[in-house]
Every structure is written in structure tokens, then in C-alpha cells.
Amino acid sequence: MGDWFQTIVDTEVSPGEAQGLAANMLDWLIADGFVSAERTDCVLGADAGHAPGTRYAEAVEDPDPELVNVWSNGLHVSVGRTVFDAGQGEPSAVTCPHCATELPLVDECWTLIDERWDRFRAAVGSWADGDDEPVACASCGRTAPVHTWIWADDHFAFGHLGFTFWNWPTLRAEFVADLSRRLGGHRTVLLEGKL
Hints:
Distance between the termini: 9 Å
Strand order of the largest sheet: 4-10-1-11
Shape: globular
Strand content: 25-35%
CATH topology of the largest domain: TATA-Binding Protein
Order of helices and strands: EHEEEEEHEEEEHE
Radius of gyration: 18 Å
Number of domains: 2
Helix content: 10-25%
């Protein structure tokens, strides 16, 4: 089994804006009843989160009445430079932000191609530590910081603000779009994963 999560990542918010924007978004999510105001032990990887609110069903496609009985059913808001990861599996491909060439990272059996992944491994791992290590494109030869590459299947997202919904049914596209709009129109990435 395992725990399912969906994370909406703001990829454009600055470090200085992230805390204030997180507070504004949380105020909206609480006021509209999507999550409860009280912080409880309802999320993985953090000390506390916000359980589903009275109107959580309006944020998802197919509400699950049993969600309230699941221990890890809350929202965790992450503030700070973070590499957000989809969890299980490997990234299938990455696309150069300069020439738009897609570089497969797995073979036809979904086995990681080490020599290709090695180009990105260190850069992905160091981004959270404040590095902006460039990666050279195998096609055009130009370099670009790892966070500007486009990851297939939205396997990774790089940012200073993320909203992780633990074990919620699939978020409605309208809810995701509204949340993104309220983030000031910043580019967002929706990661879906399982631990």
C-alpha cells in the first residue's frame, strides 16, 4: 500500500515572498473550509498539518468519506528552498530549456540510464543547499540551471513554497487553477506521488 500525495509547487516565488504568501494562502484555505485551522499530527514528514475542512470535498474530483479516518490526511505547507520529488520511480525524461530536446533518462524497461542521469544527479541533490549548478545539454551543448529544465511526468519541481495534500482524492483542476491564480499567477507544478 502506501501514502499518496499531491503537491502544488510555486516555482517562481522568491525566498523573501514565500512565508507571507504561504500565510495568505493558508488563510484562504481555512476561511473557505478546505482545511481546518487547528494544526494536528495528520501529515507525513512534518510535525503538524491541517486536516481536511468542512468543504474539502469541493477541492477534489471524487470525495472519499473515509478520508477523515486516515491518519495522514492533511495539508502540509513547505516554505524554504526545496527539491519537491514525486516519490516512487525514476524521472523518465528531461527537456532542455534552450533547444527543447527531450533527453530520456530511462530505457524501454524503465531502467535508469546512469550515464544520462549522472548529468543531473549532483545538481538536483545540491539545489536545496543553495547551489544553482548548471547542466549541459547533450544536444545543443548549452548549460542551464537544473531548476530550469522541464521534468517529464513532473517528477521534480524546484521552489520555495509547496502545498502537499496527503491521501486526498485527485484535486479538481479548477481548485488547482484557483490556488495558482491566488499565488499571483506564478508558474506552478502539480506533483503526484506515492511513498
